[in-house]
Amino acid sequence: MTKHLISLAAMLALAAPLAAQEEPQGAPSPNEIVEQASAEEWIAIPAEDLLVMTLAPAADGSARKVVIQLMSAPFSQGWVENIRTLARAQWYDDIAVNRVQDNYVVQWGDPNYDNPESEGAAKPLPDGLRVVGENEYVANVIDDDLLARHRYADPYSGWTTFIEGWAVGSKQESLHSLEYQAWPVHCYGMVGVGRNYSPDTGSGAELYTVIGHAPRHLDRNIALVGRIVEGMEHLSSLPRGTGALGFYSAEETDKRTPILSIRAASDLPEGERPAFEYLSTDSETFARYANARANRRDPFFIVPAGGADICNIPVPVRRAGE
Amino acid sequence: MTKHLISLAAMLALAAPLAAQEEPQGAPSPNEIVEQASAEEWIAIPAEDLLVMTLAPAADGSARKVVIQLMSAPFSQGWVENIRTLARAQWYDDIAVNRVQDNYVVQWGDPNYDNPESEGAAKPLPDGLRVVGENEYVANVIDDDLLARHRYADPYSGWTTFIEGWAVGSKQESLHSLEYQAWPVHCYGMVGVGRNYSPDTGSGAELYTVIGHAPRHLDRNIALVGRIVEGMEHLSSLPRGTGALGFYSAEETDKRTPILSIRAASDLPEGERPAFEYLSTDSETFARYANARANRRDPFFIVPAGGADICNIPVPVRRAGE
Prior knowledge:
The structure is a homodimer.
Chain A: H1 2-9, H2 30-35, E1 42-44, E2 50-55, E3 64-70, H3 77-88, E4 95-100, E5 105-109, E6 139-142, E7 152-154, E8 158-163, E9 166-172, E10 179-184, E11 190-193, E12 207-210, E13 224-230, H4 232-236, E14 257-264, E15 276-279, H5 284-294, E16 317-319
Antiparallel strand pairs in A: 1-15, 2-3, 2-14, 3-13, 4-5, 4-14, 5-12, 6-10, 7-8, 8-9, 9-10, 11-12, 11-13, 15-16
């Protein structure tokens, strides 16, 4: 009986344990490798880098919370600071998800902003927001470990790598230099700042997340400020908008999902603060995990791919203490 | 007024027309290039290669139809034939979507198959299904145009290309050979055949589609049989399952979406047959489109990527006569 249940679940197997005597020969899966990581290989995410976004409850009354990890230095810090300012001013309270475009993005903000139907009703932005421009889409990095790093061939930017838990595209200044340019890349679940045509028009008041295949053409063209580490399914499963670019049309504004609040975890009472950690991308376990993502040798697989694109090597993140 | 509406819509601009006097300078977007294709560059999809899957109506009563284009020769034809046999036998009627795993797949089949809770209630399969194995995951192709083809560097398989409207990974037999191995790749919206551990266990009765970042590690490990050309949003927005691998758990079987029927378009009355066409991947317009996907020069963009992975160059498909 157990055999049959597992057998169904294993159809597109990820990490399905079989009864020992039936287990096909094979190496551990990527998830099994991560489970074997030592406690020291996990790095705590600071509370000020976590945002809790509370959506209105679902139709069945169940709660919908989304946790976002903000990008760490040296990337996008101007926008990250703006987002902290907006959260602390409670500016995000009572905005909404206004756009859901299939295989692209979910976007949330003030539905009255830039909207001719309700001009004048837009919320004023708080004081203290910085104007951040295209020069901050890319960071200059000097890195003594550069030559030791795992680098991945990439059709977009020559090569990609991981820096402190983030997938980045990069360009070396010269062959023997330890200096390079790096920028975060648009993988599934990454969070970015909506903007208008001019690159400095995104304040952080309008945000989006990727819900489809990595739209890497947006890299270096728009600011990434973080990623969703819990509750992604509350956004990715929202009904698609039928207006231009997946915005909800005037006939379907009732499909907008209200956002009750967005708070920095560090501003929440201690008992309500979520705690998360990520697997160090410099750890030995991460290297084994990434290798296994690129070369699946666990039982289901016949032909290892021999490579992977960086967005198919998601950085493991989990609740602390699990 | 118009300006402001467009301005919101352009935040992550794809192809937003601005009033002429306001239009920033720039090249046409990929979608604008496709709109300029000549009628001869579009290729009709045969009715026997289209499946219409009718889901139960949505909660608001609206119809949900999904159209699948089956893979053309030389790829996966054993499974494609099985799927036609299953559709003609009306075997798919009253099965269900049983699995929705975020950033991975939606999977449908007989919920009683391989299920210890309801063993014995599984539908018997029709006669005439072939057992197809791993030797058909890859096709050998001899192609006089090989050296003229657009090829894309790829971290998985060395290079990728398009053959008759399908994205494929490939491996040349030798540098000067016109013979190569090719296989379809797992992009967003591709449809494949669920299987058990043994590679020849997928009949075509259990199917899945990709709803996240391309899981290219599945290439050459599982059969791809087509892609969704309309109605993808009815699958990608379904509630995620909370059981192992995204299967709906025993407590949430009410979330399964019933499938009323799957029919080959060629078996439908003539007035009900959908008609679709795809942009020839050998056409000049497709080459311009692919180049623009890899190097966005339309107004929103600052830095062209300089490349793209093949799953970020979706083949344009549209209803015929539009």
